[in-house]
Structures are given as C-alpha cells and as structure tokens.
Design a protein that fits this description.
Bound molecules: S-adenosylmethionine
Radius of gyration: 25 Å
Distance between the termini: 43 Å
Shape: elongated
Number of strands: 12
Number of helices: 12
Largest sheet: 8 strands, mixed
Length: 356
C-alpha cells in the first residue's frame, strides 16, 4: 500500500515521545484504524499528494509491526519497536551482496530462509513457459538472485538451457550471460527471453558454446565488465536426460568420473570471473544406476570445496515428478520395494562462497 511518508513519521514520532504506555498503545490503535481506509483516515496517512513523499509498504507487514507495538508490556520495549518501525520507514540497511532492506526484513515474505524447499507450483507467468524438458523452476534463480545480487549486477548461467535464469534477470533487473551448447535450444531461449519485458533495461545475452572452453573474458570485455557477482550452474544430472548427441554435452559423459571431470572443467573456466565474497549456486540431483545410488551432488560438492570455496548451504528441494515417472508410479513403487531403494523426490541447491 502507498502511504504518505511525512504523515506516518510525524504520527509515530509524536507517540515515541509520550511517557504513558497506555496512551501510546491507544495512539497506535488509532493509527491502525486510520490505515483501514479513506473514511477513517483522519490523520491523512493515505492522502497521497502529487510530488509528495510516499512510501510503498506491505500492508500485512505494517499491521504486524503495529500489533507488536500494541502487545508489548513495557514502555521501553514499546519505544524500541516504534523506533525500529521509524527506521524501516526512513532508512535502508543492506549488506554488500543484496538489496534486502534489513530494517524491513519481515516484509520479504517470499524469500525462503529454510534449507528445505517444497515448491509445488511452477511460476509460469510471462515468458516462463516450462517447455524444456530438464529445466528448473523459475523460483530457483529468483531466490538466488534476491539473496545474492543487487540490481544492475551480473550473473552467469553456464547451462542456460531454455533461459529461465535470464528471463528472471530481466524481471529483477540483473544483467545475465548464458552459455548453452545446443544451438537450437539457445535460439529458442533467445526468442523467449526477448518476450519478457526489459523494464530495468538490462543485458541478457545467450552464447552458443561449450562452457568448459568458452572465452568468458572476451564476452565480459564486450560488456566492459571484469567480474560477475553470481554464477548459477544447472548441469545435466549426468545421463538421466540426454540433451543431445554432442560428445561435448555433459549428459553424454561415458562414466560418472568423466561427468565430474567435465563439470570441473566448467567450474575452472568460470570461477576466475566471479567476484571474491560472492556466490556460486549449483543445482543438481543424484542418479540411480545398476542397483546403486550415485551421489552426483556430493561428488560435485567435494570438487567445488577442493577449489577453496566455502560451503554456505545444502538446500534440499522437492523434485517434481516427470510425466513419464508419474505414469509409471506404481511400477516404481514396486521396484523400490523389491530393489531396497527409495524413489528420488529431491534435488540439491548447493551454495558456495568464493573466499579467495
Ligand atoms: C539441466 S539443463 C539446464 C536447464 C536450464 N536451467 C533451464 O531452466 O532451462 C542443462 C543444459 O546444459 C546444456 N549443456 C550440456 N553440456 C554443456 C556444455 N558443455 N556447455 C554448455 N551447455 C551444456 C544442455 O544442452 C542443457 O540445455
């Protein structure tokens, strides 16, 4: 909701200097009542004047903050909460790696801070069509960019596929470089990305190349950029889905060892361009082959850690059932019982911080 900033600040400051707890609480209740609508708004909090200072605030967040003030037991606590709200309305406190206003952190109800992500619905709005078999849901790059980048910063996605990351870059005002081996997939991704409005006027560029050897310096030089602030990698989960017949495609690696080696080459080719103190997010799942669980996620994790990164989180995300699997649900359940294993229902989002 939009609020008249000077008016709400004035009202809160008046309450802050009062010395009677009950009077302050009464004042806050009155403020809440004023915010209900124009009819009850005698303080003019909802009175938006042209060229006047306004504040855009989540109404639920504001209501919660006001309730917290009303529910306190001591004058000291009440004033502490009023002061915190005043700060939230007048100042910004952000850290070096994102734009989250820490004075108003409770307002960011869509940002996940738990390590278990149960995401039921794919975001299919705008250009996010979800046509590509083996894509990830847009909420993944969305969450990572909100937490680990500021507006106007640069993101590289080394396995850009259908362009999910770059579509999200356009929405959030981040610049994005995507690399994709398959020319046809890259062409489709470009088409789709172009369909997403570029309201923040950012650059979203897809390059057809092998991420192990692509000349990232040249690509970044062209944009007059030396380093990027986030790297997202969503490799094939080895051969679970074969993306092409190209031997340079990680999904065509002959063995697990070769797959890991190819993945390492992508990491080594990319991380020199990631700023120190910034994040690499790897989205990966394990596989099951010849009666054995192959922990691709763990192998990849230890390889990245060997490169001096700091592990910041292992997020476990629920895995959407693929159409094929859904049709064969009962067969898989039977196989699991007979074979003594569990059916995959999760994948990982591994988060690393570049230390050196
Ligand atoms: C799991 S998909 C990525 C999907 C993407 N996150 C999306 O939402 O569409 C992996 C992609 O990596 C690509 N790929 C495989 N090997 C590659 C390589 N050596 N260099 C660049 N891309 C590669 C595949 O063609 C495939 O599109």
């Amino acid at each position: 909701m939009m609020i008249n900033q000077p008016k709400i600040i004035e009202s809160l400051r008046k309450l802050f200097v009062q010395t009677e707890l009950n009077e302050i609480k009464e004042g806050i209740r009155e403020l809440k009542n004023n915010l209900k609508g124009f009819k009850t708004d005698r303080l003019g909090l909802l009175n938006i004047v042209s060229n006047g200072q306004t504040i855009n605030i989540n109404s639920k967040y504001l209501e919660k903050e006001l309730d917290q003030i009303v529910n306190t037991q001591t004058l000291e606590r009440t004033k502490y909460y009023i002061n915190r709200l005043l700060k939230g309305l007048t100042e910004r406190k952000t850290n070096k790696i994102n734009d989250i206003n820490l004075y108003r952190w409770k307002e960011y109800t869509d940002i996940i801070t738990d390590s278990l992500w149960i995401l039921d619905k794919r975001d299919t709005s705008g250009a996010h069509l979800g046509w590509y078999w083996g894509n990830f849901i847009p909420q993944i790059p969305h969450q990572l960019m909100m937490r680990y980048t500021k507006k106007g910063e640069w993101v590289i996605d080394t396995f850009v596929g259908s362009g999910t990351t770059l579509i999200e870059c356009r929405r959030l005002g981040r610049n994005g470089i995507g690399i994709e081996l398959n020319a046809e997939v890259a062409r489709k991704a470009k088409e789709l990305i172009r369909k997403e409005k570029n309201t923040h006027d950012v650059i979203t560029e897809v390059n057809t190349a092998d991420s192990r050897y692509v000349n990232l310096k040249e690509i970044l030089d062209r944009q007059r950029v030396r380093k990027v602030q986030l790297v997202i990698m969503h490799p094939p989960y080895h051969d679970i889905i074969r993306f092409s017949r190209n031997p340079n495609d990680l999904s065509n690696a002959k063995t697990t060892k070769e797959f890991i080696r190819m993945f390492n080459d992508v990491v080594d080719n990319t991380i020199p361009f990631l700023d120190k103190g910034r994040y690499l997010g790897v989205v990966v799942g394990d596989k099951y082959s010849r009666g054995e669980w192959i922990p691709l996620g763990f192998y990849i994790m230890s390889e990245v850690l060997r490169r001096g990164f700091l592990l910041k989180s292992i997020i476990v995300k629920n895995f959407e059932e693929t159409r094929g699997k859904r049709n064969q649900k009962e067969l898989w359940e039977y196989r699991a019982l007979v074979g003594g294993f569990y059916i995959f229902k999760h994948e990982y989002i591994l988060l690393f911080k570049k230390e050196k």
